[in-house]
Amino acid sequence: MKHCLLVLILLCFFRFGLMASNETDDGKGNCNDVLSLEAQRAVGGAVTKLGLALLEKLQSGSEQPNIIISPLSISLALAELALGARNKTEEKLLEILQAKDMPNFHETLSCLQEQLTAKAVKMASRLYLLPGFRVNQDFVDRALNLYKSEPAHLTSIEEVNRWVEEATKGHITNFISSLPPNVALMLINAIHFKGEWQSRFDSKFTVKDIFYIDKKTSVKVDMMMGSKYPLSMFVDRKDGTQVARFPFQGNMSLLVVMPMPVHGNLSNAAAKLNISDLYKQFQSEKSMHVKLPKFKLEFKQDLQQALTSMGLGLLFTGPDLSRISPGALVVSGVQHASNMELSEEGAEASAATAVTLVRTVPTFAVNMPFIFALVDDTSYTPLFLGIVTNPNPGATTEQSDDPKTETESSMKPSKVPLSDGTLNDGPHRENMLSYMLNMWKDTVPQQFLGHQEMEDGN
């Protein structure tokens, strides 16, 4: 039997440090009234589980050392596909979407999409149909009503690429190079986020610093510096991770999860990641010295293999998509592309004591591989999720000495910029050392601290 092909394409771009957009979509006027916080977070948890499952299946390599995906974009595209599925295909899609036992899943996800659109998140969906292809009007109407998926004629690659470029504000260009000969329709979802830091960085204090890819390899990166930066964070001793929350204006946050070298690794940390639990552990902000790498990364991959290993192989062999069309349809691929740019643009002047305050306030330095999530603070929905092992993949890597232990590092004086602007800090030398010692002092009875404080002259 000859199959027509359906192509899912997911595109996303987000850029930190820019003014938030005021654009919103017209949609269900009563969504804010009917969408409970519990329902929002249930859908947010489902999106998180899908994203983490994909992260586990995707593999980084020398050409793409960093993995950046949009669980929300992928969830929206698969949910729209589920509208056209029946029987086993619909069951598997809802299972992967973590929605089998969730009442009114499509309506809740639709309302959440509209709420996020009002928070500096630009979303666009399009249903490209080959002229003359017979499609069920009910599917087209539901896709438009629930997911704002505008129908359009599939006339050329140039037309698709032009729409993609416009939807991502020019950040993803020439995305499609060719189409399968039997393609009948394409579902495309695009997400674009731009937001301004709540506490901004000053570009005057951005310097060359070392990012430790592993114990033996490092790379120089542009490191943004913030002194007395208000940061909410905690140390998870059980999982061996350091977790920090960088808020944006507009109820969004960047969460950074960085395993401590002697305790854990990225894979273990990603497998245990629970965004809802992380938010419960964040405490009030404290003034800290912060070092955050500045970078621009790109990721592009067909998710067919990953989705197949998760149990969705039938999409690519013989799915039941009869709610879309009475003819035979198979999915030819699920293309996903993401861009990530982290910068200090729009920053206001900050204190000129960025380096000198290193040892007088706790420090959170992102100078090792880390996990990140761009999250809606209300629903805990991750718009973007990823693993960064090398924030400057185009640079030449260097051999590094073995990391010094925290004890050895803490006994050494602060480093100052070298002549080339590079800060000579060891891996995890500053990461949370002061903070962990302060937490330890807060929990140990004072009679056990008196002797040490006398020795320190405090």
Automatic annotation (TrEMBL):
Stored InterPro entries: Serpin_dom, Serpin_fam, Serpin_sf, Serpin_sf_1, Serpin_sf_2
Region described as Disordered: spans on this chain: 388-425
Transmembrane segments: none
Residues making up the signal peptide according to the UniProt record: 1-19
Compositionally biased region (Polar residues): 389-398
Residue ranges of domain Serpin in the record: 52-391
Record's keyword annotation contains Cell membrane: no
Keywords: Signal
One GO cellular component term: extracellular space
GO molecular function: serine-type endopeptidase inhibitor activity
Protein family per UniProt: Belongs to the serpin family.
Protein name, entry field: Serpin domain-containing protein
Species this chain originates from: Phoxinus phoxinus (Eurasian minnow)
Taxonomic lineage from the root: Eukaryota, Metazoa, Chordata, Craniata, Vertebrata
